[in-house]
Each structure stands twice: as structure tokens, then as C-alpha cells.
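Retry 2 of 3 after timeout on previous attempt. Resubmitting C-alpha cells to design endpoint.
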């Protein structure tokens, strides 16, 4: 059976979308073809890299990607999931193959304040919330 093609999208592709992509690949990569991208690709958030390493997932070599480049390349996604605020998610292009768009709003780790430990703890909370949402998605969509 063909895998469902999923795109996780946020502003910079530096945190939330990278986390969601990593979890879906780890938890159900045999059922989903998954990528992530951003509206304005930045650099990976080092706190997110560290937070994912804490649970045994290495995203340190991931590159940030541009959602508009995916669109220009004609990439096909059946499901687009924005993991930023809804207003930002509305800026994502519509892919002709897209059958569904979802918005999962999570706080932006680049906006966290406090000490390194406090920010890392906040990233861990977002990471775990994304993992729960990805599991719900798998339960709903796995073919």
C-alpha cells in the first residue's frame, strides 16, 4: 500500500516541524512519507537538537527547507500539517495533491525566555506535546 505523504510546516523549519517530522519517521515511517519545511527557513534551534538528543533522536544533521521550493518542485503532499500559529499556517501554499490541512498550534521555542535549563525544559514540554499529537495522527491516519 502507498504511504500517505505528509508535510509538517512552520515558520523557520528550525524546531516544531523538525520535531514532528522526526517523531512521525521514528514512530510510523513505514506508513508515512514525511518531510518538513518552513515559510522562511532558518537554522536548527540548538535547544531543540539537544532536547531530541535527550530522548535518543538525532536531528543535528537535518537541514531547514523552504516550503515554497517544495511547491515549485511540484512535490506532492496529501496532508499538510502546520505546527505554528494559525495565521502563519495560513501562509502555506496549497499543494494541488493536498487533500487535507490541519493546524496544530504549539508555542515557538525561539521565543522562550529564562536560563538555558529553563528554556530546555520548555522545549521538552513542546516536544512531548508534539509527540502525543503525532501519535494521535498515526492512530487516525495509519493505513
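Retry 2 succeeded. Sequence:
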Amino acid at each position: 500500500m502507498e504511504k500517505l505523504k505528509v508535510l509538517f510546516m512552520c515558520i523557520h523549519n528550525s524546531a516544531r516541524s523538525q520535531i514532528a517530522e522526526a517523531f512521525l519517521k521514528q514512530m510510523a515511517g513505514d506508513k508515512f512519507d514525511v518531510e518538513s519545511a518552513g515559510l522562511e527557513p532558518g537554522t536548527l534551534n540548538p535547544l531543540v537538537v539537544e532536547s531530541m538528543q535527550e530522548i535518543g533522536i538525532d536531528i543535528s544533521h537535518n537541514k531547514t527547507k523552504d516550503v515554497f521550493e517544495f511547491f515549485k518542485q511540484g512535490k506532492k503532499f496529501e496532508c499538510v500539517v502546520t505546527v505554528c500559529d494559525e495565521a502563519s499556517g495560513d501562509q502555506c501554499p496549497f499543494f494541488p495533491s493536498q487533500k487535507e490541512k490541519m493546524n496544530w498550534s504549539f508555542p515557538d521555542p525561539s521565543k522562550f525566555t529564562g536560563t538555558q535549563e529553563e528554556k530546555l525544559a520548555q522545549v521538552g514540554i513542546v516536544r512531548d506535546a508534539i509527540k502525543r499529537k503525532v501519535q494521535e495522527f498515526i492512530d487516525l491516519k495509519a493505513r
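Attempt log closed. The beta strands are 4-10, 32-38, 79-82, 100-103.
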